[in-house]
Amino acid sequence: MTWLVLLPYLAVVTALGVRHSAVFKSIHQANLECQRYLGGGGANNETCGSRCEQLVLRGWSDETGLVCDSYQRYFRPTCDDTDYKNRTRSCIASGWSTAGDVCDRADVSARCCREQYGFLERRSPKILRMPEVLVTSSLRQCARILGVAEGELTLYWGVWFQFPEKARRLLRCLVLRQGIFADDHGLDVDGAYFQYGDNSIGMEEFGESFGRCANRVLAKQYKDRSRSVARTMFQCIPRNVSFTIDSDDLLPTKLHPLKCMKVFKSKCQVGCSSETIAELCHDLALQVSKNSLNEVLQNLEVNEEGMLLPSITPSGLLPKVIDECVTTRLNDCLEDCSQHGIQVICSPP
């Protein structure tokens, strides 16, 4: 009956396997990892093992100390214990008053969590924050999967992945790879917190704010999941500085709606210009250069908001694949970059 023993392990492997690039680790795994790094000493103060363990679990900073939510989620308080947080904080403060270097402080923090916070779940893996370099790698891999060219990727960055549909699909692909989204469950609050939260807001407060906002977005009943994901990520991450890629914001800082509309309008003017569309849709293999396509687009009529209209593209003037690219792009611009579209994106849900 050995297979019965293997079932929980297989279930964990299967569950984690669908999380793509997401990294899950338990304290037990972190301890084994640190034993290898530190030459077999394990998590003890002689080898600075507690600091290593907490660093591996993204639960320690030499500047600020214990990252409480990241490390303490490995401990389960008893149901009737209402003072475990205060006891843990007092224990750490008392221990730090006589601690020496960062290794001593990390050891005190680990000991206080074990003694005061709750039961240690040594083999329970938790999702870890994805490092910036891996976010960049995952995003670029998603771009390759979805056929997003480098020029498109730069443009989608510029509009915070809110339009066109291809940009929203790209963002959905990224959060899938981060392990914080699944089609059958939506966005995972805990995963979103540990990827995008910071020490200025607690996990409980983040969850309440994020949950209320996400429900309001869900109530809008967007037709496609990618749009719902993009709007939720844009509007519901309750923090002041968003996660960055290559020094650029993946998602914008929290902007006042009027400021957001002003910024987004300027980005739309670039993204929906004839020059940008020609850059994205031209194809020299089909003997349609960027300049010649730009000339065609400049002859299109515009609506009262100055948006190019796709309905009067000269029939037969462009190869089908280019005509479809142009038409799709123009329709996306009309939907998302109109005054109403920008208001929808920038207004609180």
Automatic annotation (TrEMBL):
Database matches in PANTHER family: GENERAL ODORANT-BINDING PROTEIN 99A-RELATED (PTHR11857:SF46), ODORANT BINDING PROTEIN-RELATED (PTHR11857)
Gene Ontology cellular-component annotations: extracellular space
SUPFAM superfamilies: Insect pheromone/odorant-binding proteins
Matching InterPro entries: PBP_GOBP_sf
Record's subcellular location: Secreted
GO terms classed as biological process: sensory perception of smell
Name the UniProt record assigns to this protein: Odorant-binding protein
Signal peptide coordinates: 1-15
Family listed: Belongs to the PBP/GOBP family.
Lineage: Eukaryota, Metazoa, Ecdysozoa, Arthropoda, Hexapoda
Keywords (A to Z) from UniProt: Disulfide bond, Secreted, Signal
MF terms in GO: odorant binding
Domain of life: Eukaryota
Organism: Culex quinquefasciatus (Southern house mosquito)
Predominant place of localization: secreted
